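[09:14] KT: can someone run the structure on this one? pasting the chain below
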Amino acid sequence: MIGDLVEILKNQPEIALFLVLAIGYAVGQIRFGPIQLGGICGTLIAALVVGQIGIHLDDGVKNVFFMLFIFALGYSGGPQFFANLDAKGLRIGLLCLVEVVTVLALVLGAAFFLSLDQGTAAGLMAGAATESAVVGTATDAISKLALPLADIRQLQANVVTAYSITYVFGLIAIVVVTSQVFPLLLRVDLRAEADRLWKTMGGGGDEPDAATATPEMIGRVFLVTVGRGRTVGELTAIFGGHASIERVMRRGQSLDIAPGLRLQAFDQVLAIGRRSVLVNVAELLGREFANTTAFDAVVETTEVVLDRREWFGRELHELGGPLPPGVQIVGLIRDGNAMPLLHDLKLQRGDVLKLYGPVLDVARAVPLIGDRVVESTHSNISYAAMGILLGVFIGGFSVKLGGIPFSLGTGGGALLTGLLFGWYQSKNPHRLSVPPEALALMKDLGLATFIACVGLASGPQALALVKKFGIALPLVGVAVAVVPASISLFVGHRLLKLEAPVLLGAIAGQQCSTPALSAVQNAAGNSTPLLGYTITYAISNVVLPLMGPLIVALAGLVSHAAK
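[09:31] RB: done, structure tokens below
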């Protein structure tokens, strides 16, 4: 029976592909404390195991899915990448420079002393830096080397094998050092520091753990009894910007809302705001009023992308001035992450603000901030295909840097056009393009399928590389993960004077490690590490993949010099 199954997989490799995806993502969801391999690494491990029986998919499948992934990666990260190219972003982005330079130096050093070939060196970089996209750009660069086909396939197999070995060790190392070791080296109580930063930035008494979720907004009608004599202005001050008085009815007539309006007994008051605030309003005004037929206010939640230049770099609380009183900011999404709603949070171009309030007030608020996000499930396939086509064209050009032939390849070209097309979309959110859900599918399915194809083809050669280097690769992988992070710790603490939660989040971001961010946030007790993570993640997620062709070129020279 097993023989029949093997024969089916060999004759119909597409079955093997989906089998690997199913097993890989199931394995990747298994959690060991703060450590979770994720679907990509799980898929690679499954592909290497299944690939031992000798399965090969057409290279066209691998290439098409990788281009889908790399374009979607650039497209989704473009707005935040360009938004961080300012003074503050480049200041924290210095840590990304530390990451790139140190990783390149360490990998090239390992290539010289351990006589690593180009594929193994590139896989070491991808795995230890936990950046899966490097596998694709490096593999693409190797395919263009002037070598026999058998040698190219061996080098590509070494990329995948070295990545699978070093990724696990690099991931564990960066999670442990950022969340456990570095706070000890800084000699700080990370939870206390994060709480202090939260309050300093205007977090006040809000529940820190709830900051990453959209606050629940409700409307309530109250019959004024104990609140007679209070003014709308007094109530607004008590609410602290978390709720507002939207309508006052007196003897069947709607009154104009103004700070000086003084409430009288038996007035009916409509208040809209956060549930945690409105549950106590009955003590200020009177009991909730069941009959709401006189109130025809309709409220909505809408998303607006911040693209008005006057708000770039301003603090979140400053938006409260020009917005209509009834409009609440209930969420802020940056690069796919829900940011903490702190008063001192610096706004960036491309931030997506969630507004809640009466329909007419929200309509007046939208143009003050930017453009309403177009909510559509339809993708502009023509726009995406044109971007990928242009990227492939750009990637075909080659230049010599110091005598070394260098080209971005189809992967690097598609990444750059993805950045530009995504940035353009952020500037024109009212135009139909590729929705976030479609981008997420392109990224996940594209990279997973690419990794599965390469892993299946590399299975037979994987054991040879493991036997050749033994424990050396895992140890070097740990060093490549920890050394750049340690240098960034020194630079960020001593030179940049970053707060501990922001610094540790930034180090997790320079490593493109979401598990490390989760571990740091758990240790900090709130989401303040996101303030550093989003900046370095946006930059590293673009720069590191572009290093794939470079490490292949440089490792070739080092390998030649070592012989």
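[09:33] KT: thanks! The radius of gyration is 27 Å.
[09:34] RB: yep, looked fine to me
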